[in-house]
Amino acid sequence: MIRFATIGTNFVTGWFLEAARECRELHYAAACSRSGDKARGFAAEHGADGIHTDLTALAEDAGIDAVYIASPNSLHFEQAALMLSHGKHVLLEKPAASNRRELSKLLEIAKTNRVILLEAMRSVFDPGFAAVEQALPRLGRIRRASFQYCQYSSRYDKFKAGIIENAFNPAYSNGALMDIGVYCVHPLVRLFGRPDRILADAVILDNGVDGAGTILAGYDCGMQAELVYSKITNSRVPSQIQGEEGSMVIREIANPREVTIFYRNGGEETVFAGPDRRNMIFEVREWVRLIREGAPDNPHNRYSLLELEVMDEARRQTGIRFPADDIRP
């Protein structure tokens, strides 16, 4: 049995716990929050054995084997480093860190302590994404990938009313690229590797946070990509991958439930059709598998590093800086 704790009491943590309940190998041992009242309320709601209000006490708790972290992005490095250094396995919400430098350091700590660090990039552990990977050769030579994720945030209404919450606060390493664009960047580098060049542009809001953006990417193999993301508009346009023999349409890149190939000769093939559901269960199962097998050098981390390389460069080009960029861990 893997006894785990959670850091964060937001709705995403609630979704994670729904998935964790489907894994018999996991037992919810503790909810952690700086607020005792929040921790107790969350623990009671979700069935945790106990609570922690101090991160060091949590890290030193011998009854905890693993920790799921869903705190603001800017806190990921400090909290994950503490847990890893005390021998805890960590599932770290996306993006895993504020920048590549931070993630590289976390991976060093994980390796030294022989524990698992995994970014909770739920979409790429989904069977729909596996179906996309397996079907790529049927498209012929790939020429273009167009990934879109534009979702109007309810917090944007508060932003326009002068209330700045974490999601629109660059001090917490947040913004459209980090919160939404990552769902486009990670699949790109996982399927096709790091682009040879990128060109990025962003819509910068009044407080310096990005509300939307576009990344154009080029590969020397003769392929292009365009990543379109937004927290201030919605989009009804699906994602797609275009090859010389056909185009693959993906209904939602962050939750690939419907995947269809339209062949150049007029044929059509349903590659994947799954139920609409939150797809966190698959990342949870992979985390458990890695813990059981004891594989700290898991291959998933390579793509998380590439993801942050691309995002670091996109932020450099668009002038987006976080306090974490000026701190050398």
TrEMBL record:
Alphabetical list of Pfam families matching this protein: GFO_IDH_MocA, GFO_IDH_MocA_C3
InterPro entries: Gfo/Idh/MocA-like_OxRdtase_N, GFO_IDH_MocA-like_dom, NAD(P)-bd_dom_sf
Domain GFO/IDH/MocA-like oxidoreductase: 138-248
GO terms assigned for molecular function: nucleotide binding
Domain annotation Gfo/Idh/MocA-like oxidoreductase N-terminal: ranges: 2-117
Protein name: Gfo/Idh/MocA family oxidoreductase
